Backbone:
């Protein structure tokens, strides 16, 4: 008579595993989101209204060359990784009060996908310097 309990337990385990997989980032979808949500201000390779995202992982916030960061970001001590990027995209002002980005990404899946894309791009050569 333990067979039905085994099936129920197996089904619950599969459900929990699949719900965790839903939060895994999809870099291909993240690229599409980046183009539609981020590129009006950012680029992977070049500073614009916002700083370039190339090499963002492991970088101290406010330290990329050639961009005029807010004093709050420069003084934050934040180092960009999956967790801090998720917090930032969720609510930049909550993570670093006084920063100047006025955009949030409310969907956890969208944030995961964007972060997966940024991770993928972290190792890509910069076209401006690759030919040198």
Residues:
């Amino acid at each position: 008579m333990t067979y039905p309990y085994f099936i129920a337990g197996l089904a619950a385990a599969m459900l929990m595993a699949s719900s965790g997989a839903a939060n895994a980032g999809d870099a291909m979808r993240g690229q599409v989101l980046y183009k539609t949500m981020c590129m009006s201000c950012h680029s992977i390779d070049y500073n614009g209204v916002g700083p370039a995202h190339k090499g963002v992982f492991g970088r101290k916030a406010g330290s990329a060359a050639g961009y005029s960061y807010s004093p709050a970001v420069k003084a934050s001590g934040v180092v960009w990784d999956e967790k801090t990027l998720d917090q930032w995209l969720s609510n930049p002002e909550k993570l670093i009060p006084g920063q100047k980005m006025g955009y949030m990404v409310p969907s956890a899946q969208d944030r995961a996908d964007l972060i997966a894309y940024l991770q993928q791009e972290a190792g890509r050569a910069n076209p401006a310097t690759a030919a040198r």
User: Anything to note?
Assistant: The helical segments are 3-21, 27-38, 71-74, 82-90, 92-95, 108-121, 127-130. The chain has one domain: 25-125. The chain is about 50% helix and 0% strand.
